[in-house]
Design goal:
- The chain is an alpha+beta fold and 383 residues long.
- It folds into 2 domains: 3-195 and 377-382, Ribosomal Protein S5, domain 2 (2-Layer Sandwich); 201-373, GHMP kinase, C-terminal domain (Alpha-Beta Plaits).
- It is 41% helix and 23% strand.
- The chain has a 6-stranded mixed sheet, with helices on both faces. Strands 10-11-9-12 form a 4-stranded antiparallel sheet.
- Helix 4 (146-161) packs antiparallel against helix 5 (168-175) and helix 6 (215-233) crosses helix 8.
- The mean pLDDT is 97.
- The structure holds alpha-D-galactopyranose.
- The site of alpha-D-galactopyranose (GLA) has 11 residues, from helix 5.
């Protein structure tokens, strides 16, 4: 996004000299459905951004124009905040949680444009929350730490939008760094930026182009099943607070006490935490093959134990694994559609993209959007 051109667009619709903020989407390399179990995740920010130009007004109203939707929405900050089942909920939600923190907003004109694919599981909503959060904060000359803003974004989503998500998406959107993925402990929020070997490896994202409706209801159901698991496991391990506190060998000793479905859900989360830890060790030891194998195992566990994959994701993973130079392939994000993430040898990437696209289209009649992605910078003001 060219900042000057974007400001011109803003001036076409509103008055004032705006400041401009942007925040990226993300792809998660490994550690799936672990964030709300206090576990580990390893996402990176991708080069798709939501951009917000903002200028304060003094009337306690937000005038929010989306370039993508060609829509102008007005929100009265003094009226009861209400969800509209609309893209503007993410902005209204941010305003709502900021005000609840005691930050009184003056009102603002906002122009929003995004190239983060929507409904693809690449966190277009976190990108919108974080970019509009920074924009709203700027109208009071305020600043918050990245961690605090990420937590507020999660709160907006949990309490306002009604999606019980974890902290991963907002956190990586704030903290992403060029050429690095981010290893996050979702309990302590301690993180480490880990360089990815950019020369011989490419991260390729393949979009199934489908989004099955059961996504968010199943998501909340999985959370509840994990909590049930913790409750039962506590009989044997009284100290535990979350699945993160149970090792795989501890789990295996008592797993027969859990109902079948709960057992499968817990096995996924507990083994996924171990895989995430192992994958960082592998990467740091320069063992990229091992990293790829762990990605494969992650997908299989999400498909068989957590049951959040779908036909299209499984197919896209299958055809990817079949290609020469593919070191690992798995679904990424919440599941039930969206994207796969693939670790591909640089010199094989062109053939990979063509072959996977073709095979997927032949099988489904859908044309997959495929992105070769580099780890990108997190949310920031464009100057
Ligand atoms: C969604 C949620 C995240 C995380 C992933 C699954 O993207 O927003 O918090 O739980 O699903 O890993």
């Amino acid at each position: 996004m060219d900042r000057k051109q974007f400001i011109k667009k803003f001036e076409h619709h509103f008055s004032g000299e705006p400041r401009v903020f942007c925040a990226p989407g993300r792809v998660n390399l490994i550690g799936e459905h672990t964030d709300y179990n206090d576990g580990y995740v390893f996402p990176m920010a991708i080069g798709f951004y939501t951009t917000v130009a903002v200028f304060p007004t003094r009337d306690r109203k937000l005038y929010i124009r989306s370039e993508n939707m060609h829509e102008l929405i007005a929100i009265d900050l003094d009226a009861n905040a209400e969800k509209r089942h609309h893209w503007s909920d993410y902005v209204a939600g941010m305003a709502h949680v900021l005000e609840k923190e005691g930050i009184r907003l003056p009102g603002a004109s906002m122009l929003i444009e995004s190239d983060v694919p929507v409904g693809a599981g690449l966190s277009s909503s976190a990108a919108l929350e974080m970019s509009s959060g920074l924009a709203l904060l700027s109208t009071v000359g305020g600043e918050l730490t990245g961690e605090k803003l990420a937590l507020l974004g999660q709160k907006a989503e949990n309490q306002f939008v009604g999606m019980n998500c974890g902290i991963m998406d907002q956190f990586i959107s704030m903290h992403g760094k060029e050429n690095h993925a981010l290893f996050l402990d979702c309990r302590t929020l301690d993180y480490e930026l880990v360089p990815l070997p950019a020369e011989n490896i490419r991260i390729v994202i393949c979009n199934t182009m489908v989004k099955h409706e059961l996504g968010s209801s199943e998501y909340n159901k999985r959370r509840a099943e994990c909590e049930k698991g913790v409750e039962i496991l506590r009989a044997d391990y009284p100290g535990i607070r979350a699945l993160r506190d149970v090792s795989l060998s501890q789990f295996q000793k008592v797993q027969h006490k859990l109902p079948d479905v709960v057992q499968k859900r817990c096995r996924h989360v507990i083994s996924e935490d171990e895989r995430a830890l192992e994958s960082i060790a592998a990467l740091q030891a320069g063992d990229i093959e091992k990293f790829g194998q762990l990605m494969n195992a992650s997908h299989d566990s999400l498909r068989d134990d957590y049951e959040v994959s779908c036909l299209e994701l499984d197919l896209l993973v299958e055809v990817a694994r079949y290609q020469e130079g593919c070191l690992g392939a798995r679904m990424t994000g919440g599941g039930f559609g969206g994207c796969t993430v693939n670790l591909v040898a640089s010199d094989k990437v062109d053939v990979f993209v063509d072959a996977v696209g073709e095979a997927y289209q032949r099988a489904t009649n859908l044309k997959s959007d495929i992105y070769i992605s580099v780890p990108s910078r997190g949310a920031h003001e464009m100057r």
